[in-house]
Amino acid sequence: MKNPLKFFQEVKNEAFKVSWPTSKETVQGSLMVAAMAIIASLFFLLLDQILKFFLEIVLKVSF
Length: 63
Hints:
Layout: H1 4-17, H2 23-62
């Protein structure tokens, strides 16, 4: 790349072509991410408790 000024002008032009989400879309996306994070954390909590229960049974039987 020989001309840095031309490069930055092209970057600026490409930035104007970006289709930015609306505020409503941003809020909806954020809420979906938060909901999925909560669901995933509850799933792993439940899985952890189930595995803990079975591990305690196995350890009690072996001693």
